[in-house]
Each structure stands twice: as C-alpha cells, then as structure tokens.
C-alpha cells in the first residue's frame, strides 16, 4: 500500500523528529548530569556532560535535610494535578458545549464575557483580597486548586471551536428529534466525538497544575507543609534572586546566599520535578493516543 | 465503561460541591458590596481574636529568614509565650517567611487587611512600606513613651529619631552593627601565605591602602594565574566608597562621607571614575572572570571550591570569623577605608507595627519586652537552652550536644535582625566581648551628616523607574570593568540624565534641605 | 460542514421562538453554570480593583477609598527613552514567536500524524519535556552553553573551527536568535498538541480519495490538511494577538540572566516594569502597566477579529 513517496516522507519525518527530540533532550540530560556532578567540580569547570567528579550529594542533601517534605510535596503535586485536571476538564467542557450551540439565546454575550477574561483581570492584589476575605482559601489546599487554574478562557474557546467544527450539528439535532435530552446528546454524542480535544485540554490543565508554583507562593504563607514540589523548587529560586538583586541593601546577603543550597541541588530539585512526568507520561499518552484514534475513527 | 461512569459521577459531584461553595461565597461578596473589603476583613480578624482568647491578647509577629520557618518554630513560639503569658498577658504567633517571598506576602497580607501586629522590614522595604501607608505612627497617643520606654533607653533617642520619615516615627531601629567598615576585601589566607605576605600584625582587620591591595592582587595573580583573583558584586561599588547613597539609591548622593548636605551626581564624580578605572584595570589584567556578571554563584562558594581568592565584604568586628566560616578557609580581611554610618544604615530594616495590628498597645508592650528581656531575646535568637544551644564556661553559646548547624531545629542565623542582639549570648568562635566591640565600632565610626534622612520617591517615581533601568543596563559592564570607563560612564550618565537623573537629584536636595531645617 | 442556524422567523414569532429555545436549553445553562460562576469569582469580582491603576494607593484607605490621580501612574511607561525599545521588543518578539512557533508546531504535528508506532510516542514525549522545566533552570542550561569561559559553544564548537571565543552575554545582537530558539524549544512540543488533536479529528476519507486520485503527499498537505487546520490556526493566532503586549517574564528575565548589556534586545514591558518597581513596590504603577497591556491587546484583538469575521465568520473568536 505504501508508495515510494510515503517512504521518503516517513524517512524525512523520522530524521526531523530525531533531530528535534535530540535538541529537546540534550539540555535535559545536561540537567540530570549536573545534578550528579560534584559541586566543586561544577564551579571549577562549569556545566559539563562529562564531569570530572560525580557525586550524589545533591540528592542526599534533598532527601536527608527534608525527606518528609519532599515526599509530601510529591503527594500534594499528584493529588493537586489529578483533582485539578478532572474538575478543570469537566467545567471547561460543560461551558464550551453550551457556547458551541449556535442558537443558544445569549450565546454572543456569554462568549464575549468568557473572551474578555482572557485579557482583563483584576490584578494580583484585588484577586488576593477577593479570595482571602470573601472565600477564605488562604492557607488551605483550595488555595492551590482554585485561583486562576481551575478554568481558563483559552481552553474554553479552544474546546468550543472544536465542538463547532468537529461535531456535525446534524447528528446532534437528529438525536434531539429522536427524543434524547440535551444532556444525553452531549454525553453520548458530542463528548465521544471530541475525545482528541478533551484529552488535549486535560493535558494542558495537567501541565498547568503540575508546573504551577504561583498559587502556593501567594496563598500559602504559614502552611508550607502544603507546598507542591514546584513550590519547593521555586522557593530556592526566589531566594537566590532576591538576594542577588537586593544584595546592596542587605549587608548580610552573602550569609544568606551561603545558606541556599548549591547549584547541583537546584538541578536535582528540577530533575525531581520532571522525573514523575517521565515515568507517568507514557501511561497517559497511551490513553491519550487511544482517545485520539477512537475519536478519529468515529469522526 | 463502568469505571468511566464512576469517574464521571465523582467529578460531577466535585464540580457541584465546588459550585455550591462558590455560590454562597458570591452572596457574601454582594453584601460587602466590593467596597472596603480590606476594612471588613481587618475588623473580622480583630473580633475573632478578641472573642476567642479572653484576657490573653494574641499577636502575630512576622519576619523573614533566609530559608523560611525553621523546623522548631512551634516550640520556640511556645517557649516565648511561656515567658510573656503571665507577665504581659500576651501570646504571639510567629509568622516566618523566607526572604524571597516576604515582600510579596507582607504586601498582600497588609493590603488584604490581615492581622499582623509586629513586622520586620527586612526585605519589605521600610521607605516603601511608609509610602504605601502600611505602618502605624508609633507616637500616636503616646504609644512609644507609655509602653516602650525600655526601647528608648536601649536604643537611644538619636537612633530612634533616625527612623523618622517626614517627622513621623514608623519604625524602631534594632541594635546591631550600624556602622560599616568600608573598602573591605576578604582574601583567603593560604594564598597570602603563598605569596609570602607578612600577616604577623594579628589584628582582626588589617588596615592597608588601596595601592597596597592592588599590589597584593598583582602578586596573587602572578603566583596563581589559573585562579580568579577578585569577584565584584552589585554592592562592591558602594562598599568601596565613602558615598552616602541617600534613600538607598545611587541617584543623587553625598560624597566624602556625607560631611556636607550637598547632593551630587555620583556618576560624574572623580571617585566613581577612579573606582571603575581600578576595576577595569583588574579586568584587563585578567583578575576577573569573564563570567563575573552572569554567574550567580555566591563568592564564598567560589572561594570554598578553590577557584576564587578574594571578594568584597562589609567589615565589622566578627567579620573575620564570619567569612572564614562561610568560605570554609581561613580568610584575612583588609580594610582600605573608614568605618562609616551612612544616612540609611540605622533605618535599614526597623521593626514596625502595621496598620492591621489588632492592638497597637500590646504590640508596643511586646516589642519593649523583646528589646529588654534577655531570656525572651535569647529564645528568639538561639532557641531553647539545652535543646538548641548551650552556654560554655567562657559565656559563649554553642550548639547543644548532639545538634549541629544542619540538624538544629532553630538555627536561622538572623541574630542581627532581632530587636536587641546585644542582650543575647555571643556565639562561639567570636570574641566574648563582641557586643562591646560592636558598640564601640558604632560609636567611633564617621557619621553622615544626613544620618536619619529618608527619601520619599512619590514625586519622582517615573524618573526613578527610568533611571533605575538605565543603571541596571550599565552597572555590571561599567562597575565590573567590562567596558572602558572613559566611554562607558559618559554614555550611562548621558542616558540617565535624559531619563531624569537631575530631577531626582534636585528633589533629593529639596527634601534634604527641608529635613535639615526641621532638625 | 457547519450551517449556521438561521433564526430568521419573521415578526412576533421570533420572541416566542427564543423563549422556546431558552426552555429547551435550560439543562445546558445549568451545565454552563459552574464555569460561568468560576469566571465571575476568579475574574469579574476582582475587576473593580483595576481602578487602583488610576489612584494613589494608600493601604490605610484601601484600594477603593484611595484618592484618584488620573493617568499619572501611566506616565512612567511613556516618558522614558526606553519606551520605544520595550514596545518594539515586546511586539517584535511576539510576532516572531507567533510565526515561528506556529509554523514549527504545524510542521511537527503533520509529521507526527503521519508516523506510527512506539517511536512516535517517544518523539512526542521528548519534545514536550522542555515545557516542564522552570525558566530559571532553563536560564542555567542556556548559560551552560553560552558561558564565556566554560560554555560548550565557546569551548567546543567555536574552538573546533578555530574561531575566537564570543562574549555571548555582552553582545545584544545574538539574543533575538537565542530567545526565539529557546521559545520554540520550549513551546513547540506543547503547541503541536492542539494541531495534532485537530488533525486526528479529520475524516481520513478525504485523504484516501485524494490518494486514489493520485495526489502527492505535498498536495494532500496543501489542499486538505492546511485548509482544514485554518480555523484552528486563525483562532490561536487571534488569541496570541490579544497577548501581544505581554511577554513571558521568565524567558526575557531569567534566560538572559538579567544582563544589562543585553537590554536593547531583551528588555520588554514586563521586565522593564519589574526592574523599575522592584525598588519602589508601587502597587498602582504596576497595575497601570497591566491595564495598558490589556487595553492595547483588547483593541488589537477586536480589530483582528473584525477582519476575520468579514472573511470567514466561523473562524472568528467571538
């Protein structure tokens, strides 16, 4: 069945992808290697793929100095990502489906209201005041889950557009005429047909939750036991930045910098932030691809 | 399929409950009318506080440490409360943030009207906090004189007056090294021995001239050509100057130790030209790494790793021990300039009472206790005796048995931030009379004529933003010696002038004159 | 494929129709409720706080009672000599990112959609990984390559060709390329997911019949794939235009290591505001910058949307 042209295309495709994958992976491999480099060697010779001296000090430091913290942070990250992604996909899907109904009264206004939030928000301080004084989510798990991440207009509009172009209206209308309720039509017809975009949004939401450190930075001041793995890493980075940019204002900044773990530890923390993804990702992807092909076949 | 249904069901329950709690919340918001949310919240927390704890007043004390709340924060809090509960009827809650997020969390908490009763302004800049209206006037209704007389006795009226902004007192200075030994360089002793430098003087800080320092560097470079001789930092220029950077920015300064109240442009001064010329010379000779501007590794780390020989530091009694400890090698401190108290150093990071304090009288009472009660001050600084630290026969404190720097649950090394360090124990490795030495160091230092002046940037906010950006653009290349100062400084100055540097200088002069007139 | 429902029923019938449709869609409205409620809480309730941009903020009075000062908080964005540079950089980079990242993402998505087997999964995971690394760490990794004394480029590549070492962090002219490369490196794997999902949703029968007609691969891409992708491309581009006055702070601040010598090509509105206000911590002035960015983005995206609507109604955002 395969023509010669197909073969050439595949061949070129593989070459391009191999190159791109290499480009993506090489710096990440460097990150792993530098997390396993002896700190003094790193300072003397800079980052290197073949360090003069290997060392597991960074990982030992991370695990001995705050072993319980790290494990708990992993737990928080995983729970947050799972719960967050599930809620996010559901809410996004329901809203997007409504907006995709061409004859829904008020659709234009609602779409605009959604779109508007993509460009305007109240800013950090008003948002913080709203969430802490009205909803009291400071120092709680909700503080990680809800602000800004639960749903965003970008995903809603993306999904809406997929519903509009990828799900033929005729089928929905036919089902409705056959006596199915609006909700049944959505669950039984529109949703299965939109698996590719649903898995895509799930992935976006999952990545956003996994990568997020901002919510913890803002809403968790005392409850650092609720920190996710990204919060732990970010805390190191924030401190370094604050100390190096404000050094002139604080005479003892050198002392502070000396207390912050070395470069290899930072690399180790960063590596630990993505190791779970590397482990879990193939499983997600399996379902992801399955979802896509299923959707594709049915479409 | 079944699995999927269950998942779906669970998720929709979650979404529903979420929307339910959102719904009730929405109602609240409508009631408060989106107006004055801050005040409502402040009232709430104060009421909660009064209702729940009866006679005991509960205060929240916030300050940063380099790496966040130590493990035993809860224990320390209990120990501190045991001391003050019966005596003052006050209990506190320690709210310790890491340095990098302290500014953000305080700005948000105070804007949001959350209760904070005592706050340190390290990292949460004092002048900004005053300008944005976060702090209480400490003399209102005789607050300081009624409840804080001990503080005045400890700190002296002069030091307290140095914290006034526009005549109003918003903060209390803490007892520490107010002066700064300017023009100090730390050099690892082993390399000095390597070049045969005579270190027989045995004084803690070796006084030499800049030329002698240059000479030492030249010899070091010759002997150890593979090692970096000197690593400048963003604060090196001010540490190697006798300039008073009024209000903490280099835009409009007093030259020559601030003898006269004449605001001048630092960037056209001879001092600046000479300084940059010297570093440029270092760079040309290969003393400085080509990565100096980019690399964020701490200089002490570099010395520890054996790639660097010298860096700038602030000199004070105890700095030799401090730098030696940080670098893991014996360090020698050279000083080329005077000890100096600049206008901003006393009021660098005062302790304050925010506007969201539930009970300012109690806050002041507690502060008074922190400044005067040795037992309380020691717990805050070093922890619980026997558990975190122990006092040796020489009167010096050291880690308790079985505890070290990394395993101690209370080792924040922020003793210098605490209200009154001088009533706490001296840590081992220092001279037993360290506090007296620091006091003498403060008293004998040259004091700027503008000591106590603070600069209000409100009128020149645009210019400060613009000039700050220009300075950021050029600072590293000019002050780390990567461009010829002949051309680099002129270019930077020209750009700063067109960004409004002169307006900042004029504004500073005007405020300084007004300040001097009221003195 | 998609015929817009025409509600062109004449006269008094229209209202009745609307009411009927409204009744029919009540369950749909209920489904939409959580999402709309969330937007109300997360985005609309704090919105009045934007007024702080026009005020002289005083914490004692709170945001809503602080005195109005008009547009004074905005002036710092325009009175500086750098106003032109930061605006040019912000828009220029965003345009470059839109073009480069979109083209790359589509290319990768098309290639991936044609490939099969385990190795395809590997490619896809590999190119997605960079998106999971924080920009500070990316900054360190970039430094590992471009460091003057120890970097790979200077030490290995340039040395190999017998060239002089380059001081990358003090030569602004290289940074547009480096930043565009880093941005592509970081986002292509992520962006291609959307296109891949859209491609997977296509009806394969188009391609089969095209193959039977003897269309080459290139012709299939040009005449089937790209036109089908068009709505998605337009939509994503429109959204990107809305954010054209914003810049990825991490990319422009952390990756060039905050080097002053590089400002002419790395300073954007966000980094300028951050550096200028770091010392002052002025809430009103930073809010003003946000309002400025939003308003310009809003106007641009509405204009672009209007044009798209004229040409192709279904592809328009709103």
Q: Based on CA inertia axes, which overall geometry of chain B fits?
A: globular
Cα distance spanning the termini of chain B: 82 Å
Work out the strand percent of chain C. under 5%
Largest β sheet strand count, sense and barrel closure of chain C: none
Q: Briefly, what CATH class of chain C?
A: Mainly Alpha
Q: Find the structural class of chain C using helix and strand composition.
A: mainly alpha
Task: Count up the helices of chain B.
Answer: 20
Q: What does this protein look like?
A:
The complex is a heterotrimer of chains A (299), B (519) and C (318). By secondary structure, chain A is mostly helical. Chain A has one domain: MetI-like fold (Orthogonal Bundle), CATH 1.10.3720. Chain A contains 14 helices and no strands. In chain A, helix 7 (153-166) packs antiparallel against helix 10 (195-211). Chain A is globular. Chain B is α/β, with parallel strands linked by helices and 519 residues long. The longest helix of chain B is centred in the first third of the chain and has 31 residues, at 2-32. With 318 residues, chain C is an all-alpha fold. Chain C has helices at residues 13-24, 26-44, 83-114, 118-128, 135-146, 152-160, 175-200, 204-212, 217-242, 249-253, 263-266, 269-278, 283-311. In chain C, helix 3 packs antiparallel against helix 9 and helix 9 packs antiparallel against helix 13 (283-311). Chain C is flat and about 60 Å long. Mean pLDDT of chain C is 86; it is low at 1-11. Classes of the chains: A mainly alpha (299), B alpha/beta (519), C mainly alpha (318). Chains in contact: A-B, A-C, B-C. At the B-C interface, helix 1, helix 2, helix 4 and helix 18 of B face helix 2 and helix 12 of C.
List the defining traits of the structure above.
heterotrimer, B: 519 residues, alpha/beta, D-Maltodextrin-Binding Protein, domain 2, seven-stranded mixed β-sheet, five-stranded mixed β-sheet, 20 helices, 46% helix, globular, disordered N terminus, C: 318 residues, mainly alpha, MetI-like fold, 64% helix, 0% strand, flat
């Amino acid at each position: 069945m395969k023509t010669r042209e197909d073969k050439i295309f595949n061949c070129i495709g593989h070459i391009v992808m191999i190159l791109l994958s290499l480009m993506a992976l090489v710096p990440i491999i460097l990150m792993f290697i530098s997390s396993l480099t002896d700190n003094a060697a790193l300072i003397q010779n800079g980052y290197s793929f073949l360090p003069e001296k290997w060392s597991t000090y960074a990982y030992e430091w991370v695990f001995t100095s705050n072993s319980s913290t790290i494990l708990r942070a992993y737990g928080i990250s995983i729970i947050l990502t799972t719960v967050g992604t599930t809620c996010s996909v559901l809410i996004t899907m329901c809203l997007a489906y409504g907006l995709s109904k061409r004859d829904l009264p008020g659709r234009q206004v609602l779409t605009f209201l959604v779109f508007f939030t993509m460009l305007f928000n109240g800013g950090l301080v008003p948002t913080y005041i709203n969430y802490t004084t009205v909803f009291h989510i400071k120092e709680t798990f909700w503080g990680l889950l809800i602000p800004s991440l639960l749903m965003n207009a970008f995903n809603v509009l993306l999904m809406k557009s997929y519903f509009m172009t990828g799900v033929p209206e005729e089928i929905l209308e036919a089902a409705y005429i056959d006596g199915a309720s609006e909700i049944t039509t959505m669950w039984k017809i529109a949703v299965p047909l939109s698996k590719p975009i649903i898995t895509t949004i799930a992935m976006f939401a999952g990545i956003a939750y996994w990568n997020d450190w901002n919510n913890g930075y803002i809403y968790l001041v005392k409850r650092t036991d609720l920190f996710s793995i990204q919060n732990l890493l970010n805390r190191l980075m924030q401190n370094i930045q604050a100390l190096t940019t404000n050094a002139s204002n604080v005479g003892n900044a050198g002392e502070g910098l000396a207390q912050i773990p070395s470069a290899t530890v930072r690399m180790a923390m960063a590596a630990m932030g993505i190791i779970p993804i590397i482990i879990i990702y193939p499983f997600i992807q399996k379902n992801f691809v399955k979802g896509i092909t299923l959707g594709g076949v049915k479409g | 399929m079944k699995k999927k249904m269950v998942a779906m069901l669970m998720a929709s329950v979650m979404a529903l409950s979420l929307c339910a709690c959102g719904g009730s919340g929405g109602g609240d918001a409508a009631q408060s009318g989106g107006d004055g949310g801050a005040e409502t919240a402040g009232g709430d927390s104060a009421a909660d506080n009064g209702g729940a704890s009866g006679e005991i007043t509960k205060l929240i004390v916030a300050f940063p440490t380099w790496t966040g709340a130590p493990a035993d924060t809860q224990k320390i809090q209990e120990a501190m409360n045991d001391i003050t509960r019966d005596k003052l009827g006050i209990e506190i809650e320690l709210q310790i943030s890491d340095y990098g997020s302290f500014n953000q969390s305080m700005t948000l908490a105070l804007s949001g009207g959350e209760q904070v009763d005592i706050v340190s302004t390290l990292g949460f800049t004092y002048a900004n906090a005053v300008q944005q209206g976060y702090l209480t006037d400490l003399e209102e209704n005789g607050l300081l004189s009624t409840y804080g007389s001990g503080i005045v006795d400890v700190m002296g009226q002069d030091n307290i007056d140095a914290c006034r902004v526009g005549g109003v007192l918003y903060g209390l200075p803490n007892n520490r090294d107010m002066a700064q030994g300017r023009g100090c360089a730390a050099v690892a002793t082993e390399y000095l021995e390597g070049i045969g430098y005579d270190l027989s003087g045995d004084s803690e800080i070796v006084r030499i001239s800049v030329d002698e320092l240059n000479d030492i560097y030249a010899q070091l470079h010759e002997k150890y050509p593979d090692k970096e001789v000197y690593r400048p930092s963003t604060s090196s220029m001010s540490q190697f100057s006798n300039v008073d950077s009024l209000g903490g920015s280099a835009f409009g300064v007093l030259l020559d130790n601030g003898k006269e109240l004449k605001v001048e442009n630092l960037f056209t001064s001879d001092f600046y030209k000479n300084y940059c010329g010297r570093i440029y010379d270092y760079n040309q000779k290969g003393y400085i790494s080509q990565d100096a501007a980019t690399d964020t590794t701490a200089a002490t780390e570099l010395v520890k790793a054996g790639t660097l020989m010298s860096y700038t530091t602030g000199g004070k009694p105890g700095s030799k021990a401090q730098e030696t400890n940080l670098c893991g090698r014996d360090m020698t401190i050279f000083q080329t300039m005077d000890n100096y108290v600049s206008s901003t150093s006393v009021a660098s990071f005062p302790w304050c009472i925010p506007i969201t304090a539930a009970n300012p009288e109690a806050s002041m009472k507690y502060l008074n206790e922190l400044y005067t009660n040795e037992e309380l001050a020691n717990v805050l600084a070093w922890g619980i005796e026997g558990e975190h630290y122990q006092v040796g026969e020489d009167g010096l404190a050291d880690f308790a048995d079985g505890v070290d720097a990394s395993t101690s649950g209370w080792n924040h090394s922020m003793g210098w931030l605490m209200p009154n360090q001088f009533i706490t124990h001296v840590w081992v490795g220092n001279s037993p009379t360290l506090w007296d030495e620091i006091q003498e160091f403060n008293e004998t230092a040259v004091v700027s004529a503008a000591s106590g002046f603070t600069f209000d940037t409100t009128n020149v906010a645009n210019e400060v933003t613009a000039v700050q950006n220009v300075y950021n653009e050029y600072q590293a290349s000019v002050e780390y010696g990567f461009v010829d100062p002949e051309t680099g400084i002129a270019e930077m100055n020209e750009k700063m002038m067109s960004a409004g540097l002169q307006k900042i200088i004029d504004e500073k002069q005007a405020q300084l004159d007004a300040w001097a007139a009221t003195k | 494929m998609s015929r817009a429902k025409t509600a062109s029923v004449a006269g008094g019938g229209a209202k009745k129709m609307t009411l009927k449709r409204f009744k029919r869609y009540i369950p749909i409205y209920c489904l939409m409720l959580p999402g709309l409620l969330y937007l109300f809480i997360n985005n609309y309730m704090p919105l009045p706080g934007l007024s702080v941009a026009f005020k002289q903020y005083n914490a004692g009075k709170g945001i809503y009672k602080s005195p109005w000062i008009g547009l004074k908080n905005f002036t710092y964005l325009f009175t500086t000599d750098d106003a032109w540079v930061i605006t040019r950089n912000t828009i220029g980079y965003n345009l470059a990112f839109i073009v480069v990242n979109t083209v790359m993402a589509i290319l990768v998505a098309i290639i991936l959609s044609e490939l099969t087997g385990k190795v395809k999964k590997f490619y896809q995971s590999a190119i997605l990984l960079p998106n999971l690394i924080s920009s500070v760490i990316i900054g360190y990794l970039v430094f590992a390559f471009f460091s003057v004394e120890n970097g790979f480029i200077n030490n290995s590549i340039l040395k190999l060709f017998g060239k002089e070492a380059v001081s990358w962090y003090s030569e602004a002219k290289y940074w547009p390329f480096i930043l565009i490369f880093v941005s592509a490196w970081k986002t292509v794997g992520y962006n291609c997911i959307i296109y891949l999902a859209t491609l997977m949703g296509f009806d394969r029968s188009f391609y089969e019949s095209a193959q039977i007609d003897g269309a080459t691969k290139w012709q299939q891409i040009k005449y089937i794939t790209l036109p089908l992708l068009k709505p998605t491309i337009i939509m994503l581009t429109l959204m990107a235009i809305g954010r054209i006055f914003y810049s990825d702070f991490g990319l422009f601040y952390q990756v060039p290591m905050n080097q002053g010598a590089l400002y002419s090509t790395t300073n954007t509105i966000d980094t300028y505001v951050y550096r200028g206000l770091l010392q002052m911590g002025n809430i009103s002035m930073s809010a003003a910058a946000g309002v400025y960015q939003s308003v310009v983005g809003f106007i641009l995206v509405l204009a672009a949307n209007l044009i798209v609507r004229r040409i192709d109604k279904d592809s328009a955002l709103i």
